[in-house]
Amino acid sequence: MSEQRGDIGRGLARIAIFAALIVVLGMVTIPIPGGVPITAQTLGVMLAGAVLGPRRAPLAVLLVLVLAAVGLPVLAGGRGGLGVFVGPSAGYLLGWVVGALVVGLIVHRGRITAWRVALGTVVGGILVVYLLGIPVTALVLGLDLAPTALAATAFLPGDLLKAGAATALTLALRRAYPPAFGLSAFDRAASARVA
């Protein structure tokens, strides 16, 4: 029973650490007039999905969003409050939750490999986030979908760099500290046999 409580405590601690990482990565932003700011927070979402997996990563993102909803300045540029959930970036915030889930599903589908992490961060951390973010931005700003999608491509090079960084950091963490991935001793031994 105490071992199970310890696992729950470790899981909650990992969720809190990644929520804090997402917040910290949002402190450096480049504001875009009338739109979504350029930030490193999506790097934190990608890392959460890749490291925490599909069950815990969305919880880390949801924790950040709950903190924002109660008014704490945890989003890009120190934003917070309920207003961010009706602004141009609202769809991207929802996209973070779904994106972290998708990253986790792809990365943790089998043995964690470079190609699987890269695929997960691009599909979940970029494609899914854009698919949810772009239509909401167009709706909120009263713009057509096509020009809004075209404008969003300006973010693509930076997001691809973040996906590359998330892949490299995930693989480095996997080699340096496997317990960060929350695997049991049995899972680690099975993973080592497959490698």
Can you tell me the overall shape? globular
Mean pLDDT: 89
Beta strand %: under 5%
Strand order of the largest sheet: 1-2
* CATH fold node name: Arp2/3 complex 21 kDa subunit ARPC3
Counted up, domains total 1
Please bin the fraction of helical residues: over 70%
Question: What's the N-to-C terminus distance?
Answer: 32 Å
Q: Can you tell me the residue ranges where pLDDT is under 50 for at least 5 consecutive residues?
A: 184-195
Helix/strand structural class: mainly alpha
Element-level helix/strand string: HEEHHHHHH
Oligomer: single chain
Overall CATH class:
Mainly Alpha
Label this structure with key terms.
195 residues, mainly alpha, Arp2/3 complex 21 kDa subunit ARPC3, two-stranded antiparallel sheet, 7 helices, 71% helix, disordered C terminus
